[in-house]
Specification:
Layout (H helix, E strand, L loop, with lengths): L6 H21 L6 H8 L3 H7 L3 H20 L4 H6 L7 H8 L1 H9 L5 H22 L10 H21 L6 H22 L4
Helix pairs in contact: 1-2, 1-4, 4-8, 6-7, 7-9, 8-9, 9-10
Length: about 200
């Protein structure tokens, strides 16, 4: 029998996450302290440190939770659809960025103190894309392009595009951005797919 989640722990984590986001929007990421977060959440500092080492860890945990929720909603693409760029999973990062655009503007566009956060988002996207590429490529395939190189290339391009999009006040819809990213990424994906075919 599966253990039921600890409701008090989930509530505490939600309070800390919501407090962090509220404080970032009010002060900017760099100015927020752990004390600000715990004061806003009406929790003690000891409670914060029971779950996280610092505000960066709390923020990355929050972003992973949001990504995981959207990833679960979209599901796993059919093996041939990801390399063709046809699966709606390409919408996930753009929809997510738009839904939480204020938080993203702080984490992606701030000039100081967020390099680790941006790198964490990129690594998360690269890991997600790597898993999908792995599922789309036969285990026996021996392509000229390593999967991790391709995944990081695509993730970096997506982060750059999302950053530009939000900095420009989102002049296009998430659907339009996802379609344009597909058009940009498709030649690379097709080249990769071709390199994995037996000769």
């Amino acid at each position: 029998m599966a253990r039921r989640p600890d409701r008090r722990k989930l509530r505490t984590l939600r309070l800390l996450r919501d407090a962090l986001i509220a404080q970032i929007l009010e002060k900017g990421y760099d100015a927020v302290t752990v004390q600000d977060i715990t004061d806003h959440a009406n929790l003690g500092r000891a409670t914060f440190y029971l779950h996280f080492d610092n505000k960066e860890e709390l923020l990355m945990s929050s972003l992973r939770e949001m990504f995981d929720d959207l990833k679960e909603r979209f599901g796993v693409p059919p093996p041939d659809s990801f390399l063709a760029g046809d699966h709606p999973s390409r919408l996930v990062p753009f929809q997510h960025a738009f839904e939480y655009r204020d938080l993203y503007r702080v984490t992606l566009l701030s000039q100081q103190g967020t390099a680790a956060i941006v790198n964490g988002i990129r690594e998360y996207l690269a890991s997600n894309m790597g898993e999908r590429l792995q599922a789309a490529v036969p285990a026996s395939a021996n392509g000229k392009m390593p999967l991790d190189v391709l995944a990081n290339y695509l993730a970096g391009g997506m982060i750059a595009l999302i950053s530009w999009w939000l900095k420009s006040s989102a002049p296009y819809t998430a659907e339009e951005m996802a379609d344009m990213f597909r058009q940009l990424a498709l030649p690379t994906l097709l080249t990769f797919a071709d390199s994995t075919q037996p000769r």
